[in-house]
Protein: alcohol dehydrogenase
Organism: Arabidopsis halleri subsp. gemmifera
Amino acid sequence: MSTTGQIIRCKAAVAWEAGKPLVMEEVEVAPPQKHEVRIKILFTSLCHTDVYFWEAKGQTPLFPRIFGHEAGGIVESVGEGVTDLQPGDHVLPIFTGECGDCPDCHSEESTMCDLLRINTERGGMIHDGESRFSINGKPIHHFLGTSTFSEYTVVHSGQVAKINPDAPLDKVCIVSCGLSTGLGATLNVAKPKKGQGVAIFGLGAVGLAAAEGARIAGASRIIGVDLNSQRFDQAKEFGVTEFVNPRDHDKPVQQVIAEMTNGGVDRSVECTGSVQAMIQAFECVHDGWGVAVLVGVPSKDDAFKTHPMNFLNERTLKGTFFGNYKPKTDIPGVVEKYMNKELELEKFITHTVPFSEIKKAFDYMLKGESIRCIITMGA
Ligand code: NAD
Ligand code: ZN
């Protein structure tokens, strides 16, 4: 029986309050409106960005809300004006979009779509500002336009990448955020030359994906920096060659790295969300040519402070969302890299839990035990 045009009742993990365990609820998911698609989510995973906004310690709180933005699923139905997607397509919802029509989308350089760029404060759909989720008539806010901790969700079609239907969604779902973000931060933004050294701050999934990018680019040294030394064993499998735990040193980590690298590392990629680590990642690159790339999501009141002389000495600081990939244009190609065995995804997936036990995925991340935990919907 087709559900097109009907309200769908399904399970969703709802965050009612900041930092309180998600509650499994039956929600109503309205049909997709203009330029929207409704997706049956099959697999989702947890990224640290979900946890920050759920904790809402350094972020604007917006509740009740359905989190989740790293996922894979199948299109159930499409709204008016959607021509590039149809029911049955295998897709990855993406937290940032590509409308295809704005100056940013027309630019080869920009991935900051005017209409669909990441917006953490929006709780409704762009079309009418309303939510497509409700419980007994009470609206539940969306998160990043994706809200994948629900068996069905509604997403703007510009935030949906159509991928190879042969790709296993339980693996490629991680391409929808963390993997592409880290990989692209190195390959598309830091752009290390073959034989150069790269320092990676933060060895979670995003940082390890950045390390994977460094390996693919032919980096000679990959220096991993993390406050959690347990990360170091895992990181060896990702080609990280040396490790620095800032807690093991009396001097600033910038100085430790400068001493290890004869004056500074060629490239650094920050994947922690800590503003201290962002400053360290910038100040540890070599003068004359060093490039630092910021990826971690800061708290809302953070400020980046460094001496301007660090720029005059010809260091470059950049930042990126989603590794500068255009979601619709480029992401199918990242999935193909996995299908062609150029990219390994399995090593990122350390845990799997059924949707009913989503709390465990939060526990693994908060304890720093998981790289990625895949949450299987319908289980
Ligand atoms: P994660 O929690 O799995 O990994 C973060 C790692 O950083 C942890 O191992 C932690 O011990 C380490 N760390 C924290 N503070 C540190 C410090 N001061 N110095 C050294 N190491 C430190 O998180 P993740 O899912 O890999 O995400 C990493 C960051 O990237 C988060 O801030 C997340 O919000 C952000 N992110 C950004 C984008 C983007 O498009 N820019 C996309 C996805 C995630
Ligand atoms: Zn656009």
